[in-house]
Amino acid sequence: MVNQKGSRQKQARILRVFRKIHRVTGACLFIFFSIVAITGLLLGWKKNSKGYLLATSQKGVSTSFNDWLAVDSLEKKAVYYLDSLQTGLTKTIDRIDFRPEKGMVKFLFTDHFTALQLDASNGRLLGVEIRRADFIEKVHDGSIVDHYFHLSSGSFKLIYTTIIGLALLVFTITGFWLWYGPKRMRAHV
């Protein structure tokens, strides 16, 4: 009987510790978990946002590579179109997204979330998009801080995702124990 009472007291003590860890972690990281949850929800819905979060890819004239302009010609046209928008945005290209099935090339830039869709065969501007999903993804994984402070190492993202990932693991373990612990204690009565 004494052994069972000591065991119950030990289990109750463990439960109190887990509850405190769960509560303190939740209080400290509430804002970050809210950001991750909201942005994760938005990213899950990006393809169903009717072009608001993820722009619709336009179609060019030809899907045949033989009809396409050279990449340097397309690049010059993209920079020209970006200049013509008179936005003062930097023209440094981050990447070029080729869409062969659409006959379209998308130019994405380094310092902002604007992208240009060009017809690959004639270089005509098909669309200007604000890459909201890219912005939301950077907020979601913390790399938005690296982006705005020009931290090429990605150090903030690494620290942020490590903290959030470990906290989620702690929440999972302590949450499970907060559910299972009382059941276990009742079973030993």
UniProtKB/TrEMBL annotation:
Record key words, sorted: Membrane, Transmembrane, Transmembrane helix
Name recorded for this polypeptide: PepSY-associated transmembrane protein
Annotated TM spans: 21-45, 158-180
Keyword Transmembrane carried by entry: yes
Biological source species: Sediminibacterium goheungense
Pfam families: PepSY_TM
Domain of life: Bacteria
